[in-house]
């Protein structure tokens, strides 16, 4: 299965316990199978980071959590890239899938991320 880059970027986090709107790094409004990957190479002791995929599964429905992981502290050098489960999207309405990076605690850091689309 071939993959292409659907979206990519780097989020410089803002540390907030309450989720800021800026934590949504990308949205998907096309049909396909996607994966979200984030590098945690810049995390250090005291950092707490959440990665989330939110998805609307029926047209006009509510966007809800589909995948969630929380990471704390220094990332192991052998395991710094975190990859979501494959997300299948059949909807083409705006915001059908939302990809979130949210830092709760620690020092604001840069987190490179990518969204792959599979054909």
Q: Could you describe the 3D structure shown?
A:
The chain is mostly beta strands. It has one domain: Jelly Rolls. The chain is 0% helix and 54% strand. The chain contains no helices and nine strands. It has strands at 3-12, 24-28, 32-39, 48-55, 64-72, 81-83, 87-89, 97-105, 110-118. The strands form two sheets. Strands 1, 3, 6, 7 and 9 form a five-stranded antiparallel β-sheet that branches. A hairpin with an 8-residue loop joins strand 4 (48-55) and strand 5 (64-72). It is globular, with a radius of gyration of 14 Å. The mean pLDDT is 92.
Structural class of the secondary elements?
mainly beta
Number of domains: 1
The end-to-end span amounts to 6 Å
Class in CATH? Mainly Beta
Q: How many helix segments? A: 0
Shape: globular
Overview features:
119 residues; mainly beta; Jelly Rolls; five-stranded antiparallel beta sheet; four-stranded antiparallel beta sheet; globular
In short:
This protein is an all-beta fold and 119 residues long. Helix content is 0%, strand content 54%.
SSE layout:
Elements lengths: L2 E10 L11 E5 L3 E8 L8 E8 L8 E9 L8 E3 L3 E3 L7 E9 L4 E9 L1
Antiparallel strand pairs: 1-9, 2-8, 3-6, 3-7, 3-9, 4-5, 4-8
């Amino acid at each position: 299965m071939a993959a292409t880059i659907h979206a990519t970027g780097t989020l410089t986090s803002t540390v907030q316990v309450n989720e800021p709107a800026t934590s949504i790094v990308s949205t998907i409004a096309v049909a396909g199978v996607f994966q979200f990957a984030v590098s945690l190479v810049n995390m250090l002791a005291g950092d707490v980071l959440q990665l989330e995929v939110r998805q609307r599964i029926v047209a006009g429905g509510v966007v809800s959590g589909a995948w969630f992981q929380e990471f704390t502290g220094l990332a192991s050098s052998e395991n710094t890239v975190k990859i979501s489960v494959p997300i299948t999207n059949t909807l083409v309405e705006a915001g059908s899938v939302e990809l979130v990076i949210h830092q709760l605690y620690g020092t604001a850091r840069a987190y490179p991320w990518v969204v792959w689309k599979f054909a």
